[in-house]
Amino acid sequence: MLNESLDILPAVGGAVEDLLAPDVDELEDMLVNAESREVTEFLETPTPDVRNLYRPTPPLYRPQKHLYRYFIDGSLRTYYLATGVEGNRSFPIELAQIGAAVMQRDERGTVRPLATRQRILLLLPRGPLGVSDTVWNQLKKLDASDGSFEVIDTTEKNAMTPTEATAESLRTRAGGIARNRMHRLEIAMIERTDGLRGDNAWLILDGAVKLDEFIKTPHMIGVAKNFRKDPEFRFGRGTGKRLDITRILAGLPYASRTAAFSAHGGQVAFWYVRLREQREVDYPLMGVVKVELPRPDRTPVTAEEADLLSRALVAERNVTPHGRDNRWHCHLYPIFLAEEAIKNGFYSKDVLMGMIRWPRPTL
Amino acid sequence: MTETPTPIGRTSATERDAITSEKLTFWLPEGVIVNPFDIVAVEQVNQPGQPPSRTFGLVTTLEHRTDAPTHLANYISSNFGQLDEEPNTNRQGTTVATANVLSNTADIYMPVPSERLVYFARPEDIQSALGTDTLVRERRHDAIPAGLIKMSNGAAAVAYLDRRYVLGPESAHVNISGISGLATKTSYAMFLLQSILQTARD
What we know:
Structural class of chain B: alpha+beta
Oligomer: heterodimer
Distance between the termini of chain B: 40 Å
Number of helices of chain A: 8
Strand order of the largest sheet of chain A: 7-6-5-4-8-9-15-14-13
Distance between the termini of chain A: 62 Å
Largest interface: A-B, 25 and 21 residues
Largest sheet of chain A: 9 strands, mixed
Radius of gyration of chain A: 22 Å
């Protein structure tokens, strides 16, 4: 009945328990691309025909052309430590481990870390919602000179936390700020590949290419495993032809891409690529990734270039982390390895909590 | 000039697979070849104020492990069973060797800690591992060559039996085990008899 009356967009991977663990990538896409919900322009040349938005992109394997050689991902773990009380103010105190890694693949297909970075963050608010300046100044003396440990004010504003802090939002803001710092590490990893990337050595960043600022790095794409499901596509004058993502992606054949659309005023070209045949997966949106290509000069991407990037991306679908990650159908294995490299460098929860000396309650 | 030995792996203890006083496990980097019955050496702890001791082990099994949780994952990673599918990225994997502990230079049988470098045993170390170093050093006339140990790195060492435990009032016996019907046991017995005749003074 629902399908007869509505367009149904199944949750990727089937019905998932919501609220307990909402998809962070999807939420971040909605936040970062908040002003790009309506898509009205292509960013591809020659201009695609709105009546046919699909182009075939058969896989281009590494022995034929080894295009993607660097892969970047970031990870974080946050822990709610305690509620701090100072005077008549109470506030959450959180700890986060963040990390980012850039992996390099050699000609034989072996992936190794090129660089990894990890940080520990202590997150708590300063000011009317949190600690006094006196306590804050003492805490800031704990910041490590190499950045390995940092105390951060959770009332700060950034791309992940654009609104004013309130007492109720402090805990979720801490997660957003930790995520923002993780993205900064990812940017540092991108810079680590400066001079190494080129026409035959591209980098894949897990996620969007707009973090705090746009990443204007050449020879780089962002590949998102999960993305917002509510953009509206409207082309032509007047009412024009309206499409939603359901229709666009449901009709996208295997090893094909959509036309490249414009986002952020032409600074980003994005399109979707289907990596998996429909018969291999349970739901229509499984096996589809969103590709973002920075266009700092706001020029359209050529169809040829978009085809090349997409063909090489389709070839990245194997090996899969099937059985290790629910997102196996759209999870690139080198990105999965980057995650593993970071997480294996994190302190375990037992070690981290064991390093904290809890105060004895006074009666 | 003594050549610096090249490590062949690192010891690895996990949550579920501990290193014990009887066995140790180590992973091998790409390109290293190790075979069953190779003898390896690992640095081990010692009493306070003493230099580190060394533990010797006899490689018994080698396993290649990857991060694929099931065979189905590998099947799916070949594009659902395509034999001609070439994955762009090699699956992460390593060969893990298990070695039985033979001996320790300071008679310390604590489990070898994880992350220690593992080396092939040198020929002189093999004698120590087998417990025949004193025999070879101090009572060479009682050392009966019983065979040759050849390792996969090309190193070789003679394995000796102590004549006193083969012949005379303190002797026991030599037990030769092997596959039946191939005459290998008989051939070895003939070889050992000839070795005794050539070596033993009386």
